[in-house]
Amino acid sequence: HFYKRYKMSKKSKFARDSDLDDFQDPGPSPSHATPARLTNFPAGHCLVNEKWRSNSVSKSIARVMTVKLLGGLGVVDFQPSPNLVVLYMTEGDIICGVESLVLKMEKFKRMKSQSPTLVVACIFMRTELSSQYFESFQRTIVLQYSCVIVPITNQEQVPQVLHQMFVAESQKNPFQARSIKLESSRLHKDLLLAVCKIPGMGEKRSRTLLQKMESIRKIARARNPELTPVLGPNLARGVEDFFRKRNTI
C-alpha cells in the first residue's frame, strides 16, 4: 500500500507539473535578464510570479482573469498580456528606496532591448508612509527608464488595474483613431469652403469637383478640357479664368 501511494503521488506531481509545461520558460542564462513571454502566450491569462502563490492578491486576480502561477519570471510580478509586464511595488519595497528599484529597472531595460515592443508598468502602492517617495520613484521610472507608473491606494485595486491594462493592450487606441478622423474631416471642410468661394460654384458642384481633383492645386492647374466634363463648358471656363487672374496656375 505504501508503494502504491508513493507511485500515485509521484504520478500526480508529474501531472501537475506537466500542466504547466506549456507556460514555463527556460531558465535565464546568467548574463541575460529573464525574458518575458512574448510567444505562445495563453489568451485571457495573467501570468503571476510564483512568489505570490500564498498571497491574497493572486486570488483576487483570479476573480477577473485566469491565473497561471509560474516560477522563473524574475523581476516580473504579473504579465497580463504578451507585450506588457508589471512590477508591483508594495509599501515595504518602496521604503527600501530608489536604489533597490534601479536594480530591477536595469533588468527591465535589458528585457526591453531584447523586445522593443515590450511595455513595462510599475504599480506603486501609495500609503501615508510611501507617498513621500512617489516623486523620486516617478522620476526614475518615467524619466530615466521611459516606463509607466500606476499609483494605487489599496491592494484590492491590483486586479482591476491588470484587467484594464489587458483590455487597453488588446484594443486599438480609440482616441488616436478619432483624432485622425477629426483632422481629416476638418481638412476636407476647409477645402470645400475654399472651392465654394469660386464664382458660380455651389456646395454640390464643389463636392463633385473635389471628388475628381483632390486639392486646390490640382483644380488651379486644370485646363478647360479637364474641367468641362465635370462642370460643363461655361463654368469650366469661369474656373480657369478665376485662377489665371490670380496667377495661381
Give a concise summary.
With 249 residues, this protein is an alpha/beta fold.
How would you describe what is shown here?
With 249 residues, the protein is of the alpha/beta class. It has helices at residues 2-19, 56-61, 91-95, 98-114, 134-144, 158-170, 174-196, 203-212, 216-221, 224-231, 233-245, and strands at 45-49, 66-70, 78-81, 84-89, 119-125, 148-152. It has a 6-stranded mixed sheet, sandwiched between helices. Strand 5, helix 5 and strand 6 (148-152) form a beta-alpha-beta unit. Helix 7 (174-196) packs across helix 8 and helix 10 (224-231) packs across helix 11 (233-245). The protein starts with a helix and ends with a helix.
Beta percentage is 5-15%
Low-confidence stretches: 2-34, 173-183
H-E order = HEHEEEHHEHEHHHHHH
* Strand line-up across the major sheet: 2-1-3-4-5-6
How many β strands by DSSP? 6
Average pLDDT: 79
Structure characteristics:
11 helices, 6 strands, 249 residues, disordered N terminus, alpha/beta
